[in-house]
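PROTOCOL LOG
Step 1. Enter all chains and additional molecules of the complex.
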Amino acid sequence: MASEAPKAEALNVVGQPVKLRDLKKHVGGQTSYCDDLRFPRMLHLKMHRSVQPHAKLLAVDTAAAARSEGVVRVLTHADLPGGELWSGLATVGGAGDEPVLASDKVRWKGEAIAAVVARTPEQAEAAAAKVKVRYEPLPAVFDVEEALAAGAPNLIAHWPGNHYIFGDDHAAAQIRLGDVEKALAEADRVVENVYQTSPIEQAPLETIGCVAVPDGDGRYTVHTGSQSLSSTLKSVAAYLGLPANRLRFVSGSVGGGFGGKADLAVEVTATLAAIKTGRPVKYRYTREEEMFASSTRAAWRVYIKDGVMNDGRIVARKVTTYHDSGAYLRMSNYGAMKHSTHWPGPYTVANVWVDVYCVFTNRTPSGAMRGFGIMPASFAIEVQMDRVAKAIGMDPWRLRLLNAYRNGDMRGHHRAVKDAAMIETIQATAKLSEQNLTGDLQSLSSWRQKAG
Amino acid sequence: MTAKILSLNVNGRDETILCDGLTTLQEVLRDQLGLLTSVKDGCTQGGCGSCSVLVDGELWLSCLAPVAALAGRAVMTLEGLKQSAGIAAIQQSFIDNSAAQCGFCTPGMILTVKALLDANPEPSHDEILEALSGNLCRCTGYLPIVEAVKDAAARLSGGADAARASEGREG
Ligand code: FES
Ligand code: FES
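Step 2. Run joint prediction.
Step 3. Record the structure below.
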C-alpha cells in the first residue's frame, strides 16, 4: 500500500497532452476502414432475420432466394460443419449456447436465420427478403424477474431456470462481506430503492462489418472492424472446425466501437460464405441492423437496501441485481462478474451482500459497452447516495466523502483497495464547481484513514 | 432497370458514369470510380453526414443524391480538395484542436466546414452549430469540432497573425 500521493512532477505522461497519431490521415480522408476495402470478385452477404421473438422454426424455404438475380449461395444452419453453438467467451471456458444461424428455434426478433450471398448488396438484400420461414410462435418473456419466475417459458434447454450458472451451481454471482442482516437490524435507518436502466445501442458511426478473403491455399484472411481480434479468430476457428493456422485476422482503423464491436457478429458467417463460394465475401451491417440486431448495453434492474447511521456512515449494503442478457449469453457472464465486484461502489461499507443474476429473455442479446457491467451499478449507487443523504438530512458531498474508500480498505469481494482517488476527485470537483467543502472534508485523503 | 450513361466532373476530371435511376452519387464515388473512400457510408439514409461532398461548391449528402440528376455537374470529395484554398487550414485546425478520434466522421465534417467558410468566412457560434447539425460524430464530442471551426475561420480571415497565434496554442 502506498503511503503517500505521487508528486505531480514525477509524472511524465499523466497530465501531458498527447496527440492521436492518426489525426493526419483522418483529416486527409486517407484512413481506411473495413468497408473501404475492395477485392476482385467480392460478394456481399445479407441476412434474413427472425420476425418472431420466440418461435419454433417449422420450415426455412430458401428456393426463391437462391433463384433470385445475382445470388451465388444461400446458407442456413445445415451448412455449418457440426451445427456448433457459440458464445463470446466459449473458447476461454464460457458456455456456447448460440447457433450461428438459427436451427430449430428463434429466441429474439432479429435472430439470423439464412444468409444470402450475391454479387451486389442490393441483390443480396432483395433475395434475403424472399426467404420464407414458417414459425410456430411460442410464449415469450421480456422481463428479467418474469423470466426467473416458476412457469416462465424456457428459452434455452442448457439454462433450465433462464439464468446463467456461475461456478458449478450458483444461480447468482455472490459477494459476501461481514453480516449484512445484523448491520441492517442495528442501523439507524434503512433506505431501500429499485433502479432500472434501458438497453443502449453503442451506435458507432461505422457499422459492424468484415470481409473474408480466400487466400487460395485453404487459408482465409478476414479483415474486420472487430474490437476483439484474437478471440474472434479463435471463435471462428472453433465454430467452423478449422485449425487456427488457416485463419489470418487483420484489423485496421475501427470507426468507433464503444464495446459494440467486441462480440462475435459477422465473422463466422462471412468466413463460411468465403469457404463455400471460394470468393471474397463482405458482410457489413446496415445502419438499421446496427440499431436493432447488434448487441446493446444490457438493461439492468438493481435493488439496493442500505443500512445507514445518522452520522452518515453506511454500515450495510444489500443488493440484488438482474442483468438482462437477452436471448443468449455472449459475454454477459463476464459483465455480470465485473458488476458484482464493483459493489459497494467507491465507498467502504463493512457489511455487503450482493446477488447478481444473469437472466435470459426474448430480447436482443446484450453485450459490452463502456464500463461493461459497471455503469448500471454506478448509476444506481450514485442516485442511491443522493437518496440516503436526503433521508438523513446530510449534504450529499459530505455523505460521499465520509464513506469514500481509501487505500487499504476492504472491498466487497475481499480485496484491499489500492490506488484510490475518490476523495481527491471529489475535492477537485468541488473546487471546480465552486462548492465550499468544510475544513474537515478538505483534509481527507485516500492515503490516510482519518481526517486531519 | 434501364442503364444510362452520363458525364460528371469529379475532382476536376470528366468521368463517364453508368447508372440507373436509383444509383446514388455515393455508390458511384465509392465503387465505380475506384476508391474515393473519403466519402463514407455511415447510414445510407441521410442521417449522419459522413458521405458529404460538394456539388458545384454546395454541400450534398451523396447517399441521397441520385447521380442521374447530376449530369454535367462538378463534384468534389476530400481527395480532390487537396490544393483547394483554405483546406489545409481547416485540416490543421482539426489536428490542433484534436477534433477527431476514430476519424470516420472527419472527411464529412471537413467538407461541411469548407462549404460553411466559403459561404460565410466569419460564422457565429450559432451558425457553426447550424452548419454542423447534419454531421454526427459519435466519438469526439462536438466542442473540439466547434473550436476547430472557429480556429480555421480565424486562420483564414485573420491572415498570418491569426495563423501564428493559433499555431502557438496548446492542442
Ligand atoms: S451515409 Fe449519407 S448521411 Fe449517412
Ligand atoms: S471521430 Fe468517430 S465518429 Fe467522429
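Step 4. Note key features.
The helical segments of chain B are 25-32, 87-96, 106-119, 125-132, 142-168.
Chain B has two domains: 4-80, 85-165.
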